[in-house]
Amino acid sequence: MPTFGLPLTTAWDYRLVTLSIISAVVGSYIALDFAAYMRMAHGIRRHMAFAGGALLMGLAIWSMHFVGMLALKMHMPVSYNAVLSTISMLAAAVGSGIAFGILSRETIGKFHIIIGSIAMGLAIVSMHYLGMASMQMQARIVYNPVWFLLSVLIAISASAGALWLAYRPKIFDKRHGILQSALGSVVMGLAISGMHYTGMMAASYYPTVHLVSGLDVMPTIGNYTLGDVLVVAAAVFGIMLLLLATQAAVERQAALDRLKESEARFRSIAASSTIGVMVTRLNGQVLEANDAFLSIVGYSRADMESGKLWWNQITPAEFAAIDRQKVQELQETGAASDFEKQFIRVDGRRVDVWIGGLILLEGSSDTCVAFVLDITEKKKALHALEESEARFRQMAQSNLIGIAFWNIYGKIYDANDAFLTLLGYSRQDLADGKINWKEVMPPGEQLLHAERVQRAIAGEAVSPYEMQFIHYDGHKIDVLVGYAMLEGAPDKGYAFVLDISERKRAEAAVEESAQRFRFMAESMPQKVWTAKPDGDIDYMNENWINYAGLSLKQLENTGWTSLIHPDDLVATLTLWEDAKANGSNFQIEHRLGRKDGTYRWHLTRALPMRDPIGKIILWVGTNTDIDDLKRAEQVLKEREERFRVMADTAPIIIWVGDEQGGFLYGNKRWLDFTGLTSEETMGMGWLERVHPDDRDDAQETYLEALQQRKPYESEWRLFRASDQSYRWMVCTGVPMLTIDEDFTGYVGTMVDITEQKRINEELENRVVERTSQLQAVNKELEAFSYSVSHDLRAPLRTIDGFSQAIMEDYADKLDEDGKRYLQRVREGSQQMAQLIDDMLTLSRLTRGEIKKEPVDLSAMVRNITAELQAQDPNRNVDFIIREGIMAQADKRLMYAVLQNLIGNAWKFTSHHLTALIEFGLIEKPEGPVYFVKDDGAGFDMAYSDKLFGAFQRLHDTNEFPGTGIGLATVQRVINRHGGKIWAESAIEKGATFYFTLQEQEIER
Amino acid sequence: MSKAILLVEDNPNDEELTVRAFKKNHISNEIIVAHNGAEALDYLFKTGAYAGQDAEDLPQLIILDLKLPKIGGLEVLRRLRAYEATRYLPVVILTSSMEEQDLVEGYRLGTNAYVRKPVNFLEFMEAVKQLGMFWLLLNERAPTRVSLGLRE
Fold first, then answer.
1. Interface probe with A: pick from B9, B11, B121, most Cβ of A within 10 Å
2. Chain A: nearest CA to B119, how far in angstroms?
3. What pLDDT score was predicted for residue A272?
4. Quick one: which of A592, A606, A394 has its CA closest to A499?
5. CB distance from A833 to chain B under 8 Å?
6. Higher-confidence residue: A272 or A224?
7. If you write DSSP's letter for every residue of A432-474 in order, what string do you get?
8. Pairing of strands B5-8, B31-34
9. Which residue is closest to B68 within chain A, CA to CA?
10. How does strand A914-924 pair with strand A876-881?
11. What is the rounded CA–CA span in Å between residue A498 and residue A761?
12. Interface ipTM
């Protein structure tokens, strides 16, 4: 199409320009609001919002463009191609949709903003130039490339600013959210209109016809005028605005409802009597509180409602820091963890409280709600327990109160950390709905629990009760649980849970300790009792009850006083009152009545038991029966007195020394003897009365004995006061030992032995004298027997010798009688010689030493029998000789004994054709008994007493020869060996001679 | 050196009976009787009444009683054993007693035998017979003084 001359001059209607900009801003606001909603919505709503937002954005850009075109006065008729202009709107919608799509993700970075801005900018640019292309007029449009490029840049960069405002995290806080989105809309509106008018600056219009008139007519799009179309677009936006407003109202109502519900929840908690609840400003003013809270702090509702109740004003200074810290925590995170503090009540008392559930009210930045629990009692209990056990410290440090919200189906849908920690569940478990009453309760508790929940649902107050929960890991926990329903929510309730396992354990420990005390008290042999601090008896053990024969009821408090002996009552009560008043130990010896009516002495003691701060909490007393002891003491006293009297009347000196060697006591006789006083004799004073020559020795021997703790005996001279002379004394002492063998000194006597000593000396002298006399006699006797053995035998030899000479030399001159008489003479002389030999033997055996050595008696007997048989081989005698009989004896003398005994047996069996002689031994407990037995002539036991006498014979000499000295000799030898000899016999029945060789053990 | 028997015996009865016993047993050696210890020593040491006699003239056997007047038999024994010439002369104690002290002392002093005089004369005769047989016939005398001296 040809052009004609200069481009058209155009003009602007600035009212419409303004309108175009406003429409762009309003349209952007609505579109962006849709886009923002789209980000939060899900499913079909999200898609609808997406489409709606994109379309609205497209429409907004489009509307702005055409209002802007209306503002252009071209002075020639213009119409727009409907199809192309529709396409331009759709292009804008598609571009916006792409931008919104990019920005619909959860997290948006710079990159997303840039890409989204390019899409949005191109949407605006493409709509504009498509819109220009739809122009139908008698002119040609020529674009200045610089302005064109500038328009594109403006579109993109302004979009970036707008989108950044709309999508970036809040520049302003929540309260300014609307401002931010408004600003975003303005920038977006400016982006659209800025691009549009820059694009218009790039365009120049060259007419293709000569302008006939400068008429301005309303352009048309298709069959409609542009104005009509724009009115429709405006209507669309109006409707959209209305929609958005409605939506906002609905949402506000929903938020309001939520708030109401939450408030109801708090109100119901607030209404409960156990937990205080307050709604308060962070600056300290309490806006609302339940009666529980008010009663905790002691203020009236009127005080609160008139704005006078400020929690920071009733907080002790030491808790200001933690309060500040909690307020800061609230401001930063919207909630604060629970803690303990104190409030000062209106009456000035302090009250321990637990503050929990600190959260900002929804939509508020300076108002919070807080649970307040009066834990004074718990603290007190804690304190009391600490005093005795110090175990509850742990509990004090723990998070004590658990709170759970539940519904009537048993599900726990909300709970605090304390509750979760207590049961070992995580917050995730809670969110996943894993916690319900059945899960946390042992089957045994569930019925009771259900019944209580039913009562709670029915509106009854369920007072807190103790039960058990099951921890997540399976162990049981003792808890105190209270229930209440949420106000206005008939299907929901809450529970507070206090962990009391430590208290339970402590209670069990206290109970065990009490039981242990009881057991100990019951097992003691004494009477045991306890009394309250005021002195009233509250416990007595079994011994007491049994002793008194009364019941504890009758004895407790002051009932026991009736058992005290009337004479001891005043003293007892006085001392007891003193002890109670001063908190001092109580001790008395007094008589207590037994059920049989007798009184027995008792040692009664009581000690106050104190708590850590020193307050008396209990009196523990015992009564020990010392009646026997007292009696024994009395007996001892009497005995001691008796001893003293006895000692003083004793005719000898009695003394007692201590373990150091000193003198402790001397009886009256000692004092009389020495002329000393009791005081003077103490210690070593007694030594001064000992003769100077004996003193050192006396002391030395005494100290030596003392050191070895051995019996002491010594003789020395002691000064006698009565005649000023020294007397010989024998002093003996025995160590005194206690039952435990502890050495305590000596007790002893002194006896005057002067006289005895004199007699002894005389006696000794006499013995010496007699001994020498005896020795002389002995010598004489020896000389005598020596002479006898020589001189008595000589004449006998002469008689015998010359008788024989006569018989030989004068045989022819003697007749038979003469020869026989001479023979008698010879026999007489020979018999006389035998007699002399035997007597000498007897006398020899009386003298001389006995030398004991081991002697084989059996061998000796064998020798003797062999000798006898050799002398008289014609005899037919059997011997039974027991072998190996040994004895400790004098060999020579034993030979004489056996020779005599065996010889006798040989002799007295000589009239029998055969004989049996036995030598043997009988083992007796007292020792061996030897015997020689024969079966010969025997003797009459009637004469057995003459058997061992010298020169005694039981047989005629012509029957059995002998001098009668043999058995006397035997007896003497046996006796000299310390043995005995005896015989058993009967006439013609043989004889048995028994002998022993030493004194029998028993007799010794 | 003679073949004589020195009989030291104070009791004349015993002396006569002893001599009788020797005679009866046909022992014909000369019997010199000393009636006490001093006399016996005089004879042996050639002193007193025997002074001047041959010192070599010593008996073949001494029969010694113990209980003697003046010097006892044991003293006689002690002295003759102390003297060189008589040290090895056979001495037989013939006495009444069997006192232990005599037996011990006799042997200690060096007697060659100890015989108790039996009261029974027949036994006495037997004892004397045995004595004479042994000491006078069987027994060999000790060598002479000279040879002994040489040996020393």
1. B121
2. 4
3. 58
4. A394
5. yes
6. A224
7. TT--BHHHHS-HHHHHHHHHHHHHHHTT--EEEEEEEEE-TTS
8. parallel
9. A790
10. parallel
11. 106
12. 0.81
